[in-house]
Amino acid sequence: MFKSSSHEPSVFIAHQLCPPHLRQLVEDTVKSFDDKWLLPPVEGELFDSGKACLACLQGFALSQGFAVVTTASKAKRFRFAYIYYGGKTKNWRKLEQHMEKDLESGEIVSKRQRDSTSKQARDCPWEIYWSLRSVGKRGSGEVTGQLGISKATHNHILSPNPFIYKVYQKATYQYQDAVKLALGHRLAYQPYSAMRRVLDTSGLSIDRNTYYNLVHSKPLGQSNDSFEGLVFTLEEGGFRFNYLIANELAEDDSCKKRILE
């Protein structure tokens, strides 16, 4: 939201429902943008490239409480939409439609572990495009990149906290510092609970899924490290555990091997 007087330029103020600990970050991020980025898209607005158009749209979207993605791109045309533009949720893990239980034991036998799943706004009609258009006399070959509006309205409430969208989180130096600090712990197979205590002392944070996705495990059948396979299996199963690994040093003080104690 913006506040202004007749003598001063517009000043961005975070939404009153934005979490207090994020208000300053939201305001500082918006202040770092070109003032023109905070204005609503205008039909015929000029941009040198589709990427330049996207950057401007993303700045406007952050200030309003939504996020933009590129849905199609060609040399002469880009299409942009609200990040959850599709009508259906992607089922990348091929889960069943509903959770299934054994009738006798009551144990869950399906890949889907629960029926209650969160769902963002879907099928939003907001859509903008950028394209190269001919200008000047016919046959002159002179072209310019212009913004076009297919639909500039939403079918959902915009978020008071734009940092619910990962694209904005990843752009902050706080997130980048947290990832750098967490990566070393992830490579050492440290559980999320241990790493989170370290981040808390540094005033940083990342969520559990982001931490475990920093290193993608190989299928157990393709891994030569049985301990690595055990750790990943326990983590993915939601178990909480601790372990101690010591380095066995060679004569030149380099690490010869690691020993589980």
Question: Could you describe the 3D structure shown?
Answer:
By secondary structure, the chain is of the alpha+beta class. The chain folds into two domains: 2-87 and 123-169, no CATH class; 173-260, no CATH class. It contains seven helices and eight strands; from the N terminus they run E-E-H-H-E-E-E-E-H-H-H-H-H-E-E. The chain has helices at residues 20-31, 50-64, 166-169, 173-187, 192-201, 208-212, 226-236, and strands at 2-3, 11-12, 68-74, 77-82, 127-134, 143-151, 245-249, 255-260. The strands form three sheets. Strands 3-4-5-6 form a four-stranded antiparallel sheet, covered by helices on one side. Strands 1-2 form a two-stranded antiparallel ribbon. Helix 4 (173-187) crosses helix 5 (192-201). The longest helix is centred in the N-terminal third of the chain and has 15 residues, at 50-64. It is elongated and about 80 Å long.
Strand order of the largest sheet: 3-4-5-6
Helix-strand topology string: EEHHEEEEHHHHHEE
In whole angstroms, how far apart are the ends? 56 Å
Spans of at least 5 consecutive residues whose pLDDT stays below 50 are 4-9, 115-119, 217-224
